[in-house]
Specification:
Layout: E1 9-15, H1 22-36, E2 40-47, E3 54-58, E4 61-66, H2 78-86, E5 94-99, E6 115-119, H3 128-134, E7 139-143, H4 146-154, E8 160-161, E9 176-177, E10 180-181, H5 182-185, E11 192-197, H6 211-224, E12 228-233, H7 245-251, E13 259-260, H8 264-269, H9 273-282, E14 285-287, H10 297-304, E15 309-312, E16 326-328, E17 330-335, E18 340-345, H11 347-359, H12 366-372, H13 377-392
Parallel strand pairs: 1-2, 1-5, 2-4, 5-6, 6-7, 7-8, 11-12, 11-14, 12-13, 14-15, 15-16
Antiparallel strand pairs: 3-4, 9-10, 17-18
Length: 394
């Protein structure tokens, strides 16, 4: 018989578990293990469930998924969802875990809940909106990267630390996809494959994933190395509020044959993680500089598959890449939306990193794979989550 490790009521507010987003994946890992280890767990959705109460099937039984409200971030319903869920057993301890940007959370209804906020810190410092939330007496900050913990504690706020997790039984060097060698499946042979896995979503004129800088750097790099191919694991037309990448590629003079996208129906509704691992394995390098990452799951997923990373030398990324990856430099830029500083990657630094990656020995990196093992989801659960949850459910 499995020993019950946790006793209490937990609501996880995030993207619905199982959705094809980084938050949805982490929410799935979290609710699965909460359910397995004895917590009474429910999910409150800010994306992925609408209209009526749904269920999510964990390996250990179904859990309820409360739908998104009229407010884009469910401020109007999420506190009510938790109150309704914990009313089933008022005598046991309870907590609500937030897994998303906390500056979107508004209203006094949140103030009476015992909250653990698993929070990304993706700017050069903790933004004013995030700081105000984390200072609340009923909120326990949980940084998802070492940089976030340092930044929060620099504000005089006590903070826990739990990194995101990956399933290293899936994310590993993978030769085949859908029964074929992965490069053959992609129509490639010995090209130098640069991959990006980044959501094409932006806030007006700023794109946190730095597509313009990365694509222009690729255009410059490819003039020297016409055997280079760019695989963009994203949506190309900006349908979710992002940018039209096709227009950008044309403007930068990048030929069609040098760029690949996934089939859109697979990308939109989710391809098997085993297929994503195969695509990472086909890359010679993952191109991942951005204006700021709160964590950046693709950097860890790619390394677990043996693929080295070009990342940003700021925010979460430096702590999340192995010593044989490459970090690019940047310069400050103002984010008027959050009254804080982003860091914009410098195009010459990206080009230089691409050149170093091109000259490096190809093939899977054991250094990267060994580094990524620390983020195995079960290691993260046992080492980090269980101690934090036992504090929250006192």
């Amino acid at each position: 018989m499995t020993t019950r490790k946790l006793k209490g009521t937990v609501t996880v507010w995030s993207n619905s578990p199982g959705e094809t987003t980084g938050y949805g994946q982490q929410a799935e890992y979290l609710v699965n293990r909460l359910k397995r280890d004895g917590a009474d767990v429910a999910a409150s959705s800010n994306y992925g469930a609408e209209g009526s109460l749904k269920t999510f099937k964990t390996p250990y039984g179904e859990i309820p998924v409360y739908p998104r409200g009229l407010d884009p971030y469910s401020n109007d319903v999420a506190p009510m969802h938790h109150a309704h869920w914990k009313s089933r057993n008022e005598k046991q301890p309870d907590t609500l875990i937030t897994l998303y940007d906390v500056w979107v959370l508004k209203g006094k209804a949140w103030d009476s809940i015992n909250i653990g906020s698993w929070v990304p810190i993706d700017h050069a410092q903790v933004t004013p909106g995030v700081e105000a939330w984390l200072q609340k007496e009923n909120v326990t900050p949980i940084a998802m990267a070492p940089n976030g913990k340092r930044a929060i504690e620099a504000k005089g706020i006590e903070c826990e630390y739990v990194p995101h997790g990956i399933d290293t039984k899936i994310f590993k060097p993978t030769a085949n996809i859908q029964g074929m060698p992965v490069r053959e499946f992609m129509g490639l042979t010995d090209e130098f494959v640069i991959g990006m896995n980044a959501a094409n979503k932006s806030s007006g004129l700023i794109h946190r994933k730095s597509f313009s800088e990365n694509l222009l750097a690729f255009a410059i790099f490819r003039e020297r190395h016409p055997d280079a191919v760019l695989y963009l694991h994203t949506e190309p037309l900006g349908a979710a509020g992002g940018w039209n990448l096709i227009t950008m590629l044309q403007a930068f003079g990048i030929p069609k044959e040098a760029v690949m996208f996934p089939p859109m129906i697979d990308y939109k509704y989710g391809m098997p993680q085993e297929d994503l691992a195969a695509l990472y394995s086909a890359m010679d390098v993952l191109l991942a500089p951005g204006m700021g990452e709160g964590f950046g799951l693709p950097t860890v997923e790619a390394q677990a598959c043996g693929t080295r990373v070009i990342g940003s030398n700021w925010a979460a990324t430096p702590d999340l890449v192995a010593e044989d990856s490459w970090l690019v430099e940047g310069q400050p830029m103002w984010d008027a939306g959050q009254n804080a500083i982003w860091t914009m990657p410098l195009i010459p630094s990206i080009v230089n990193a691409l050149e170093q990656a091109y000259q490096a020995e190809r093939g899977p990196s054991q250094i990267a794979m060994d580094f990524a093992k620390q983020f195995d989801v079960d290691t993260v659960w046992d080492k980090y989550w269980l101690p934090v949850l036992k504090k929250l459910l006192k």
